[in-house]
Specification:
alpha+beta, about 70 residues, 4 strands, globular, four-stranded mixed β-sheet, about 15% helix, single chain
Amino acid sequence: MKTATMPLTALCDYELRFQSLFHEGRALAFPCDAEGHVDLDALSERARGNYLYARAVVGREYATPAVQRCH
């Protein structure tokens, strides 16, 4: 399973996960709060770009994101 996430300095409680529509096991996940709000200022430049891309292609490349508890 391949998952792209931003490196975290502290463990997160929740993540916003964008599951690929075409590649089983592939997803993009970002730390968020319980409501799914992602702190863009806390993301690296690369992670921010990935997050904005995933949001832009929901329904075409990625499924609607889901809020999940972090492991």
